[in-house]
Amino acid sequence: MEKWMIYSEIMQLKQKGFSIAAISKKLNISRNTIYSYMNMTPEEFDHWIHGSMTRSKKLDPYHNTILGWLKEHQDLSGHRFMIG
């Protein structure tokens, strides 16, 4: 639901005449995100949100392994376990 709020806020601010840079600063999100959201109709945005919720992520196969590492080494932050 949060993404819908951001989408709505972007559209309202643009309609009020705010520049992309001003919207970016006000909402603390990248200009690329603003351009991406602005180029979508509400129907396209809804489809995009649902698609992003169901697609698999690159690290999904390693989910349990990473959780195991983090539980085993609670004194270290997660960025210490970067693979590669």
UniProtKB/TrEMBL annotation:
<dbReference type="GO" id="GO:0003677">
    <property type="term" value="F:DNA binding"/>
</dbReference>
<dbReference type="InterPro" id="IPR009057">
    <property type="entry name" value="Homeodomain-like_sf"/>
</dbReference>
<dbReference type="Pfam" id="PF02796">
    <property type="entry name" value="HTH_7"/>
</dbReference>
<protein>
    <submittedName>
        <fullName>Transposase A of IS643</fullName>
    </submittedName>
</protein>
<dbReference type="InterPro" id="IPR017894">
    <property type="entry name" value="HTH_IS21_transposase_type"/>
</dbReference>
<dbReference type="InterPro" id="IPR006120">
    <property type="entry name" value="Resolvase_HTH_dom"/>
</dbReference>
<dbReference type="GO" id="GO:0000150">
    <property type="term" value="F:DNA strand exchange activity"/>
</dbReference>
<feature type="domain" description="HTH IS21-type">
    <location>
        <begin position="5"/>
        <end position="70"/>
    </location>
</feature>
